[in-house]
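Box S1 | Example of a co-folding query
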Amino acid sequence: MANILVYALHYDGAINKNSLGAVSEAAKLAGELGGEAHAILVGAGVDATLAGTLGNYGAKKVLTAEGPDGLAQPVVDAMAAAIEGGDYGYALFGGGLLGFEIGAGLAARLGAGVAMEVTQINVDGGKLVAERPILGDTSISDISFRSPVGIIIGRLNAFEIKESGGGDAPVEAIDVTLSEQATKATVLTRGEQRGADIDIEGAAIIIAGGRGLGAAEGFKLCEDLAGAFGNTAAVAATRAVVDAGWYPYAGQIGQTGKTVAPKLYLAAGISGAIQHKVGMQSSENIVAINKDANAPIFEFSDLGIVGDLNKIVPKLTDAIKAKKAS
Ligand SMILES: Cc1cc2nc3c(=O)[nH]c(=O)nc-3n(C[C@H](O)[C@H](O)[C@H](O)COP(=O)(O)OP(=O)(O)OC[C@H]3O[C@@H](n4cnc5c(N)ncnc54)[C@H](O)[C@@H]3O)c2cc1C
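Box S1 (continued) | Returned holo structure for flavin-adenine dinucleotide
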């Protein structure tokens, strides 16, 4: 029962990065448990070659099942069938809305224990123990399982993608009879959320703006600075400004947004709340600009600048442009 089954979300001919992280994490943990990490892809005509590439992230076997794309219930059916017919102790999800829905549905179907928003998984006594931040991320709870199968749903991008060098994995198509509820819904159309093209996770430099920008228009300062750095830089935001509609959710950093670790994280007008900190604290260099010398962000910044961002950020932009031109 030491095997781990990982759900791998795929669309547009690629496997979602969050799922690659989950497969890598499962491979590491299964190795410690003395078992194997397997992955499962569900969809209409899953590309077996694409599925097999998960071997490069540590999956020893990849299952594929036929079902409609983009819906949770068919995946619940497929994973329940795989678990009932296999030898799995855990099911792992990278997070994201679909991961939460499938994980919760699978837990209900199997009568299994579920740990959500997990940021780290440890092996203790031959079993997995999931760490979940609680009370606004001020404490960590350890979650272990009494059910035969434990369901673990990670926080978005909590698990690092690691190539195993293992080469492609064998792919096995499984037959699944879809339940009645799995055939009730139909996907009519798929749209992109505004800002979905914002790639903050891949950026080496992040210029993040908070409420101190004063208004949505304030993001122009961040965009100009990111532009001066070139295409290695991206603009991000706090939840306060995303909630205010100043910036798209795709750029949100923190507990309910993305987790990033760029070489440089420049925070302009951000107070440094714990829920923001958890999404960016692993950045190599943190520079903060805040007019309040007592702002919490200075407690975990490598360089702090006390002053008005409206004066400082344009000067930085000019300095970077001048440096690049010289
Ligand atoms: C369950 C939960 C989940 C959450 N998830 C997230 C999350 O994922 N991400 C996240 O970011 N937050 C999250 N939050 C919200 C978080 O608690 C903070 O409210 C938020 O991060 C604050 O955003 P901010 O720093 O932009 O705004 P504020 O806290 O209002 O800070 C604005 C800062 O700008 C400074 N400032 C103002 N004017 C200027 C100026 N002209 N020049 C320089 N500095 C200036 C101020 O001194 C202040 O420090 C969450 C909260 C909860 C309860």
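The mean pLDDT is 93. Residues 17-33 form the longest helix (17 residues).
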